[in-house]
Write a structure and sequence with these properties.
Helices cover about 40% and strands about 20% of the residues. With about 220 residues, it is an alpha/beta fold. The protein has one domain: Rossmann fold (3-Layer(aba) Sandwich). The longest helix is centred in the last third of the chain and has 26 residues. The N and C termini lie close together (about 10 Å).
């Protein structure tokens, strides 16, 4: 039995292009998986994440120094560990990442800054550097943007979005990443053709994942 963590970082519900594409992927993938996948949905707008502030940072610095956090810092660290454990428990990820101000939504950055911790998602060696601790996992990331498109001139924005998030996935050890992209989806004469192409991407990745799951069974 596999565990798929579906992370929602758009607040727009059914009106969200990224949410609709994620649902299209699930609509094809889950029936083909024949009950072998359990979906855990984490809506980042639900307020479920702890506030990672000074006490959390103090705990992180203690861990870096080889000490166990105590007191209020220890309590903050326990909250962080609970969210990181939920993330690390997944075998597969489906993550919606709409572009906000050339980057990722702040709620997604909140998740990243909460769970990207030493000994939880990454290790560090003074000589070898960082090592991602998540192994044998795969992700589908839905990238959407209203204006920006790959190769766009500077007046249409910049990509601190897909480039940043893909780098973070690799940082924590997830390098088996498939992308569904719908950019741009607003400032075009015909958005429907791009939407159809993105849906084809979603269904193709669902078929590929299903085939790989069947081979591994």
């Amino acid at each position: 039995m596999g565990n798929l963590l579906h992370i929602i970082s758009s607040p727009r519900g059914a009106d969200s292009e990224s949410n609709r594409l994620a649902e299209a992927f699930l609509a094809d993938y889950l029936p083909a998986a024949a009950g072998s996948v359990v979906v855990d949905t984490l809506d980042l707008w639900s307020g479920a994440l702890p506030v990672y502030g000074g006490r959390g940072v103090a705990a992180k610095m203690s861990v870096f120094a080889g000490r166990e956090p105590e007191g209020e810092a220890g309590a903050a660290w326990d909250d962080v560990k609970a969210v990181a454990a939920r993330f690390a428990a997944a075998d597969e990820y489906l993550i919606t990442v709409p572009m906000w101000n050339h980057g990722v939504p702040w709620v997604l950055k909140h998740l990243i800054d909460t769970i990207t911790q030493p000994g939880l998602l990454f290790g560090f060696d003074p000589e070898a550097g960082y090592t991602g601790l998540l192994e044998h996992k795969r992700a589908v990331v839905v990238y959407t943007g209203a204006v920006y498109f790959e190769g766009a001139p500077p007046a249409f924005g910049a990509d601190f979005h897909r480039s940043y998030f893909n780098d973070w996935l690799r940082f924590v050890g997830i390098d088996d990443v498939s992308e569904i992209r719908f950019q741009p989806n607003l400032v075009v004469a015909d958005a429907e053709s791009g939407r159809r192409d993105a849906l084809r991407q979603a269904r193709a990745i669902a078929a590929e994942w299903s085939a790989r799951r069947a081979l591994a069974a």
